[in-house]
Amino acid sequence: MKFKFRNYIYPAILCAAVLTGCSDDLDVQPYDGLTIDQTTGTPEGLKAATIGNYNYIKDPYYTRNFHMLVEYPSDNVALSGTTTDPLFYAYNYQHLTSMGITDNFFRKAYQAIYGTNVVIEKLQEGQSAELDQVLGENYFLRAMVHFDLVNIFGRPYAQDGGASPGVMIRNNTDINDLPPRSSVKEVYEFVIGDLEKAASLMGGSKSSSFASKEVAQALLSRVYLYMENNEKAIEYADLVINSGRYTLLPTADLPNYFTYANETNRETIFAIKHTLQDDQTWGSLGSMYLNDGMGYGEMYASESYRNLIDKFEEDKRREFIVPVYEKNADGSIKTGADGKPVLAARNGYQKYYITKYSYQEGVVTLSSPVYLRLAEMYLNRAEANAKLGNDEAALEDVNLIRRRAGLSGDALFSASNMMGYTSVLDVVLDERRLELAWEAQRKYDVFRNKRTMVRNYPGTHLPSGSNTQEIPYTHPRVVYFIPEQEIILNPKLEQNP
């Protein structure tokens, strides 16, 4: 379905379906039991509208497109073929001004923002703790979506202090108000204001399918880290870590992290909840990473990432990667002349499936994408401490994550055991890569730290006749074009170079 920007009205109100299995405190009628007046004029209706806003970020136009736009340009993935799907242009940095995944993401994002603005304008603060919680959730969602938008369409804050163009800030329901792009700095300030407001309104009783005080604090830690306000990044990471709400999953359970329902996983801070009725099957995130009776299985773990994770065989995170072997007619694994198993390939590219978006509750293509988790808070703190010169504290947090991954002894870092690294920051960034691979963070980690994305490994991202692809942080395609259709609808929008 195509939506025009000027028609971004009542979408969340009309889509307030309850998230099955995760209603928590929200005892609401289904959307078809409410009139528009009931929805916008009663607390119960605004609770229902809030569920509709969560559904917007669950929509494939948001969640799936966000993942493709952010993860596919990273050095953790290798695509095994060409495709007419616009995901290919995200993967190989050949962006278009009219590209389905940016068009649809942009529109769905602003629909979600409109929906949050409806609730924020209608719901008066201070009526009850329950309604303040609902209001806070909408402030969080509005902040989260603006943050995702500005990082996709605006250059990293740390590159120029946020001076470059960001995205439109939408804080009202006036459909005739079509603002120009605010600067990245202005958008970040808006996001921080909303998150601080959200944290002040919310408590900590909701499950990880919903926003809570700690969810807002966790995102604040990430926002401040991206701004290189390192003291604040540590402050908010500490609040989450010390809240007592979250614990790292035990080492033995780590390979199964993403198979558990997010509400039962004490490490997950916020996930975009998907139940069986939400399973996108062939259109799911996991479909591109795995073929197990269903799925395309075309995007693999990159050689670059595999070389990093394979440094220590005991690292449990290696189990998120599944090598695929050729089979004999009897189903046994085929071996080569050297006696070793023969890896299967597609178009000459060896198959290494990724399982982080598969097998939730045993369903091959079902997953609830994790947006925030406790491991990131330790790594946020580690990066911030590394940049402040607190090397010992940074390595302590890195080692905490490595121990959880099953590493010990000489596999842990210290001032006398840097394992070839010359910088603690480099240690932290590689640990972030190891831990958060395929969770839509690597691209940001590279470019906001003014690094080059090095993709000198097999895959269809390589230019014809070349074995290298290196994208410097100054490259114009670090960010995507503003969708051309949106500029037609709102001529105040300035296009990216």
Overview of this protein structure:
By secondary structure, the chain is mainly α. It has two domains: 43-266 and 435-489, Serine Threonine Protein Phosphatase 5, Tetratricopeptide repeat (Alpha Horseshoe); 276-362, no CATH class. It has 16 helices and ten strands. The chain has helices at 36-41, 43-58, 60-71, 87-91, 100-122, 129-153, 157-160, 184-201, 213-227, 230-241, 303-309, 374-387, 391-404, 424-436, 442-448, 484-489, and strands at 77-79, 268-271, 299-301, 321-323, 345-346, 349-350, 352-354, 370-373, 453-454, 470-471. Strand 5 and strand 6 (349-350) form a beta hairpin. The chain is globular, with a radius of gyration of 22 Å.
Order of strands in the sheet with the most strands?
1-3
Q: Calculate the terminal CA-CA distance, rounded to whole Å.
A: 29 Å
CATH level-1 class of the largest domain: Mainly Alpha
Strand percentage, roughly?
Answer: 5-15%
Task: Give the beta-strand count.
Answer: 10
What is the CATH architecture descriptor of the largest domain?
Alpha Horseshoe
Largest sheet: 2 strands, antiparallel
Principal-axis shape: globular
Rg (CA only): 22 Å
What low-confidence regions span 5 or more consecutive residues with pLDDT below 50?
1-34
Please indicate the count of domains.
2
Portion of residues within helices:
25-40%
